[in-house]
Structure formats: C-alpha cells, structure tokens
Predict the 3D structure of the following.
Amino acid sequence: MAVAEKAGELEKIADEVRQCCRCGLGSERTNAVPGEGNPDARIMFVGEAPGADEDAQGRPFVGRAGHLLDKIIAACGLKRSDVFIGNILKCRPPGNRDPRADEIISCLPYLQRQIEIIEPEILVALGAHAARTLLNSTKSIGQLRGQFHEYYTGIGRPAIKLMATYHTAYLLRNYSPENRRRVWEDMKKVLAELGLPIPQ
Ligand code: URA
C-alpha cells in the first residue's frame, strides 16, 4: 500500500475510534487516543492505555511516561515522527486501572488493523499488558522482554518481530541503572535487527 493510502486508512480508523462506544470507557473519556505517527513506520510502539494527559490531549504518550519514551526514541537516533505510537486501549480506564478483558476484546481490532496497515518491521510492546495481549501469553514481562517474539497478522502473511520491554511508566517508578540498561539492551536489539546504527 502506498504511504498516502496508508495515511488515509489510518485516519478512517482514528475517526471510528473517536466515535467508538463499544465499551463503557467510551462514555468516560474526554478524548479517545487513536495513536499517531509515521504511516510507514519501521518501528511501532504499543503501550497499555491512555493516562490523564493523553485523555486530555487525545494523543498517545504525552505525559511523563511519554517524555521518557521520547528520550528513548531520541537515544535510538530517531525522531518521534519516524515511528508510530499506539495503545492496546484507545480510551483511559478510570483512575488508570488495568485494562479489563472485555475492554481489550472490544478495542483490540483497532490496533490489529493499524498494525496490518502500517506493516512495521518491528513491534515494541511496552509493558506486560501490551506484551501479553499481543503475544496471547500469561508470562511476566521479565520473562518476555529481551528477545524477539513473533506477532501474526493472518494466515499466509509473514510474522512481524515483536520485542517486549518495560513500560516507561514502570521504568520511571523503578529508575535503576539495571532497569535502564535492560531497556537500552532491548532497543539495541531492535536497532541491530533493522540494520540501524547504534548510537554510543
Ligand atoms: N501509558 C500508556 O500505556 N499509553 C499512553 O499513551 C500513555 C501512557
């Protein structure tokens, strides 16, 4: 699909998301957060769900966790506009509680369609909720991170490589040199896989 066509298809999904009332979160939100970025991105980051800042602005990862994600993207030698940033849930769960299974079931098709349109070479799942949902796994993020997994978009279509790493909100709460090193190790594997230079 040409880039302009991808952009158009993503905008259609974003319009649907902004009108969506498939689950109870639709009536609680200020703004839905469809996701944003390069329609032709090689890397797509997937978080859990919007927080208060994202709900207020209708944009993903714009609060403290978002600023840390921006730093990680910059440390990779990339710009935010190079990648696509989305979430499992498009609306904020009240009080930032964990996503519920019924909400994930209602919302996941939007993300699945975004992935199919963008066809990124690598998905980076941020945190346990994104990693477990996309990999249909019950393992901990500690077990899932640090290695490539395969994400399937459909029969006969090539798998997309998925790297799981810590969510930036978790990293902010546990900002140890060891955890920061682990996330950087994960991102270095992503850059190496894409043949991109690894900034020192
Ligand atoms: N945390 C997420 O998982 N997603 C966002 O968009 C912001 C914070």
Notes: Residues 33, 47-51, 54, 60-61, 65-66, 87, 169 surround uracil (CB under 6 Å). The mean pLDDT is 98. The CA atoms of residues 176 and 182 lie 10 Å apart. The first helix runs from residue 3 to 19.
